[in-house]
Write a structure and sequence with these properties.
Length: 351
Amino acid sequence: MKIILISSGVLPVPPSGYGGLEQVVFDLAETLDKKGHEVFVVAPSDSRLPGKVQLIDGGPCASQGYNAHEWESRAWDKYQPMMHSDEFKGAVWHDHSWAKAAYLAKMQNPGLTVVSTLHGMLPYHAPPPVKNPCFIGISKHHADSISAGLGIPVRYVYNGVDLDKYTEVGRVPGDRYLFLARITAFKGAHTFIDTLNQLNEKGDMVGDDILVEDPNYVERILLACNDTGGRIRYWGGVPRDMAIEFFRKARAYMLPGNPGWQEPFGLTVIEAMACGCPVVATASGAIPELIEHGKTGLVVKSLQELPEALASGELDKMTAKDCRTHAEKFSRENMANGYVKLYEDALAGGW
């Protein structure tokens, strides 16, 4: 099968630091390549693709002088002619970008096979005007939300991680809780601080503070951490290998998503459990699908329940092995197998 994965222009593939969508595209490309498929990736110039995977160069990364939407437009100018060429006849075009420009080509040529994974909250008011758009969510809840919003069938494939990069062996949890997500209000960085302040507990605040909606919020979080006198340490963005060490040493990972935010998946939840680290999170979006409550973490109904959950002693009963075993359901091999099945369905007519 010939498969073209269209990434975003926000970060290279794989991301040099800690990224989500671009890391998923990398892991999917590498796994599909190992399964014998012919794989191409539309991505920024400085991407480093594995094996026989071929780069369709979309130009310099969006951070180098223009925004992500401009990058996607420039990349579209490069791969659009390929979509109508004989070389790519019968290929599957798998769009992970934000603009979903591949559907412009399908409008011109309905015979093209285009599928699309959404990686965030629904940004569109209507589906693309083509028969069987073949939209894909990254969890059951996410797919249902997209389907309800657009009025079309939506399938789902869970994101997967390269489990070889994570291990629970030798995990020695410390006395510090971990927040690791973008420093944004909807991810609940301020709630993490407030919860630990109520219990006088220690913590580490880790996450991207560059690609954020509100730099002033980041400043408030930094000051709030400094006010604890080192009890809660602010780290900012870190590379993935350093993030793994945080997961391995944390007492537990906290993801206190705020009301109104529906988590589409939660890649860090899987990464934490793959390192043997239990997770405490609010029941936002897909979170209840990822955590086995009482065994690999705690899912609370409201932010107000977080202090009680941390103080309950339930986290101390959870084992690194149970967390790891549960995380193995979300391997990148399972992700690739799920997508191959949907590629076959799309080639047969779609949904």
